[in-house]
Amino acid sequence: MDDTHEVSTGEPSDGATASERPGSVMPRRAAMAGVGAIAVSGLALAGCQVEDGGNGGGGGGNGDGDGGDGDGGNGDGGNGDGSGESIANTDEIPVGGGVVFDDEGVVITQPTEGEFKGFSATCTHQGCTVAGVADGTINCSCHGSKFSIEDASVVNGPAERPLDERALSVNGNSLTLG
């Protein structure tokens, strides 16, 4: 049996072979190999998807893979918002003032002795990073907004919303986000 399937071009046969008529004949094996390659590549791509915790079910496959070397996934994932790491000692934050930590995107204040607060360092007016803390306010130098060191409420606009609060833990002399 011939492994080719002739495609009619509407022209009379001239006796030419398949290789002499490009595009008019496609071997079945080539067609099936192409379909198989597409199916296998689809399964390979599906294997690269990021898991989201669901059980999504598995799809067939022939079990011929080697399973990998098991080296992936051993990183710590970074600290994201800095949670778990001490970013300051309590004695670094002045009573009645505060400090902006640019890298962590946070302002830590100490309104009264031993009371520490954490707020986002991003001004709610137009997203500038606040510049510093002075005279009982957290100050944005971009447009002059000022926020209370006690609760980050707006003391002076143009900002209309307070700074977002950030969770802050005190453990001995250590201040930790999260």
Automatic annotation (TrEMBL):
Q: Which domain of life, per UniProt? A: Bacteria
Chain residue ranges for the region called Disordered: 1-28, 56-94
Q: Tell me, what is one Gene Ontology molecular-function annotation carried by this entry?
A: oxidoreductase activity, acting on paired donors, with incorporation or reduction of molecular oxygen
A Pfam family of the record is Rieske
Provide the Rieske domain boundaries. Answer: 84-177
Fetch the CDD domains from UniProt.
Answer: Rieske
- Which keywords describe this protein according to UniProt? 2Fe-2S, Disulfide bond, Iron, Iron-sulfur, Metal-binding
Alphabetized Gene3D superfamilies for the sequence: Rieske [2Fe-2S] iron-sulphur domain
Give the matching PROSITE patterns: RIESKE
Specify residue ranges for compositional bias: Gly residues: 56-83
Q: Which cofactor does it need?
A: [2Fe-2S] cluster
Q: Name one GO cellular component term.
A: membrane
Q: What is known about what this protein does?
A: Iron-sulfur subunit of the cytochrome bc1 complex, an essential component of the respiratory electron transport chain required for ATP synthesis. The bc1 complex catalyzes the oxidation of menaquinol and the reduction of cytochrome c in the respiratory chain. The bc1 complex operates through a Q-cycle mechanism that couples electron transfer to generation of the proton gradient that drives ATP synthesis.
Kindly provide the name given to this protein in its UniProt entry.
Cytochrome bc1 complex Rieske iron-sulfur subunit
